[in-house]
Write a structure and sequence with these properties.
The structure holds 2 protein chains of 2 kinds.
Chain A lengths: L6 H15 L2 H13 L14 E5 L19 H9 L34 E5 L3 E6 L4 E6 L16 E7 L3 E7 L19 E10 L2 E9 L8 E2 L3 E5 L12 H17 L4
Parallel strand pairs in A: 4-5
Antiparallel strand pairs in A: 1-2, 1-10, 2-3, 3-4, 5-6, 6-7, 7-8, 8-9, 8-10
Chain B lengths: L7 E2 L4 E4 L2 E6 L7 E7 L7 H4 L3 E6 L5 E5 L4 H7 L11 H21 L26 E5 L19 H9 L34 E6 L2 E6 L4 E6 L16 E7 L3 E7 L19 E10 L2 E9 L8 E2 L3 E5 L12 H15 L6
The chains are: A alpha+beta, B alpha+beta.
Chain lengths: 265, 353
């Protein structure tokens, strides 16, 4: 297991490089096109997503969707949005209040936009999804149960899944708290948020991933994420990368705070 | 009966704080200050009680807790808890859960509250359980009695420390045990990962899931998990140290799953009473499923850099919980901090003059 730089260090370094060279928008649009050009892989197994998957290209580490494609916010959401101080995007600034800076859980669906791998493990009654980022996981229940109508709000929500045909796994989730952002550029959501995802395994090595967030309390229309491509990583295993507050804090004192007072030019 | 998000109390003898409901039995009724509380979301003792003088505690019938507070007048405990907004009504689900899980128990527990019930007698003695499935630990498990929330072993069974470990131990300020004191430096107070094996000594649920090549063990506490590889691989010799280590497992016969783990960092404690370990620590565990509902759990920690001999944990018993599912219980730094500012720090006794 080779050493890796601390995830937050990677995250911040990547942000400097990315901010100077590309716009987030350009990268998000490039990813699906790269994927379409090579697809001569062997056929997909039926109703099976097992394995370690990672976004192709820059599918992760983006916002859910480019800021310009976000639907209008309700006054409730706008007030929250105005209080957010993200580290990325047009509003990016040092000394922000992104909850993940203090290792609060990144939550779902934001965790889906990280470049780190995720793993799907299938059981008879559920699919387990593991994210390397923050060493998190969720069960996606496939035993026919419904979404609970009054679930206690959580960071990663409550998820159920079913197959459409032999190649598309559809996941619906709800029961989220409203403490997480939709991505590094901010954007709030409410406890009423519902997320629909489609994992379409088009061949052995490839999942085409779609996500729609519906949250009428916060947005006047559903938010539709650009299609992302996940690739099978047969030789990888998920590593343990928890967010450790004491290390974050040390990092903040040693690097982030001094840097915030002397931003890169 | 109510639960509040803030702390509140009533003159009729119970206190609610967070999702905790505490029944306080006055000293004149019980010889000592005996409190009985149940907690709906996490099965462990809330911080403001931890800082008090808990003489001993155990889990009584039907998942209720009994605490015996030494030298503590329940009214003093009550007065230490900042009282804010009045009681808020339960939401529907919590009400239902409360009644389903604890309804009968609350009546019974009141009757039994003054009678300490030894942990070993709590199991349901009726009907011999059915035999265990072969080579299968799948399911949600929970310690019987006081199996969790204890140190790996009592202080008197911890072998002598090396000077290296003694130096680390001297710096530890745990909230429990013989060194306990307010204002400690237990790493979990700031939501640093609890790590393995300490997470094994929590009262919260565990779940095993078996898939080809590995057994996944989930810990409700901290929403953590680890993979126990069963594909025949060996422990890596140069693994990067992690909080939960690297684990491999194999079956001995059809009923005993043996897990060996290594590759731990040295940032975690072995338990709530402190005790350090080094990166050389190796852990051997035996999960012996003696019948359908029961696992006998043995753990041995070998760490020659820190201890002169292996630490052998007392045998613990896990029981199958067929109707439980693990909840999402994440340690959230911002919430811990807010809790510390609001409740834990005010509740910490001032040093005596």
């Amino acid at each position: 297991m080779p050493g890796r730089p601390h995830p937050l260090l990677t995250y911040l370094l990547a942000s400097f490089v990315a901010a100077l060279t590309f716009s987030t928008i350009a990268r998000a649009q490039a990813a699906p096109q790269q994927a379409a050009s090579k697809s001569a892989s062997s056929p997909a197994p039926k109703r099976d997503l097992s394995g370690v998957w990672q976004y192709q290209g820059t599918g992760g580490a983006d916002s859910m969707t480019p800021d310009k494609d976000m639907p209008p916010m309700t006054p409730w959401a706008k007030a929250r949005f105005d209080s957010e101080k993200p580290g990325y995007g047009p509003r990016g600034a040092p000394g922000g209040n992104d909850p993940i800076l203090q290792c609060d859980p990144i939550g779902f669906p934001r965790i889906m936009f990280m470049p780190t791998p995720n793993e799907l493990v299938q059981l008879h009654d559920r699919v387990l999804q593991f994210w390397e980022r923050e060493h998190e996981w969720r069960p996606i229940w496939t035993d026919g149960r419904q979404l609970p109508t009054d679930a206690d709000p959580t960071w990663f929500g409550y998820a159920i899944g079913h197959w459409e045909g032999d190649d598309t796994f559809v996941v619906q989730s709800a029961g989220f708290n409203d403490k997480t952002w939709l991505g590094p550029t901010g954007f709030p959501h409410s406890e009423e948020m519902r997320v629909t995802e489609r994992y379409h395994r088009i061949d052995h090595d490839t999942i085409v991933y779609d996500m729609t967030v519906t949250d009428p309390m916060a947005y006047t229309k559903p938010i539709v994420a650009p299609q992302r491509i996940m690739k099978l990583k047969p030789h990888e295993e998920i590593e343990e990368q928890p967010c450790v507050w004491s290390l974050e804090n040390e990092f903040a004192k040693r690097i982030r705070e001094p840097a915030a007072h002397n931003p890169a030019k | 009966m109510f639960i509040t998000d803030e702390c509140g109390s009533s003159s009729t003898g119970f206190i609610a704080c967070g999702k905790t409901l505490i029944f306080v039995i006055p000293r004149r009724v019980a010889h000592r200050g005996i409190s009985l509380f149940l907690r709906l979301d996490q099965r462990e003792i809330p911080h403001f009680v931890r800082n008090d003088k808990i003489e001993y505690f155990f889990r009584s019938l039907f998942s209720l807790w009994v605490l015996v507070l030494a030298r503590t007048n329940p009214h003093r405990l009550k007065s230490k808890i900042p009282t804010r907004s009045g009681p808020a009504p339960l939401n529907k689900k919590s009400q239902r859960d409360l009644m389903r899980r604890y309804g009968r128990a609350m009546l019974l527990a009141f009757s039994f509250a003054a009678l300490p019930i030894p942990a070993q007698q709590q199991g349901n003695p009726k009907a011999a359980p059915s035999p265990a499935p072969k080579r299968d630990l799948s399911g949600v498990w929970h310690y019987e009695g006081t199996g969790g929330s204890e140190p790996i072993a009592p202080d008197n069974l911890i072998p002598p420390m090396t000077p290296w470990a003694q130096a680390k131990y001297d710096e530890e300020k745990p909230g429990y045990g013989r060194k306990r004191a307010p204002g400690g430096n237990d790493p979990i107070l700031q939501c640093d990962p609890m790590g393995f094996p300490r997470v094994m000594f929590m009262y919260t649920l565990f779940e095993f899931v078996q898939v080809p090549g590995r057994v996944v063990q989930f810990f409700e506490r901290d929403h953590e998990y680890r993979s126990i590889w069963t594909d025949g691989r060996s422990l890596p010799k140069d693994a990067d140290p992690t909080w939960y280590g690297y684990a491999i497992g194999h079956w001995e016969g059809d009923d005993t799953f043996v897990v060996e783990s290594a590759g731990f960092n040295d940032k975690t404690w072995l338990g709530s009473t402190g005790y350090p370990h080094s990166e050389d620590m190796r852990v051997t565990e035996r999960y012996r499923r003696v019948d359908r509902n029961t696992i006998l759990y043995d753990i041995t920690v070998t760490d020659p850099k820190a201890y002169a001999q292996p630490i052998v944990g007392p045998r613990r018993i896990m029981k199958l919980r067929t109707k439980d599912e693990l909840l999402e219980e994440i340690c959230v730094p911002s919430e811990e901090k807010s809790f510390a500012d609001r409740v834990a720090e005010p509740a910490t006794p001032k040093p005596t003059k």
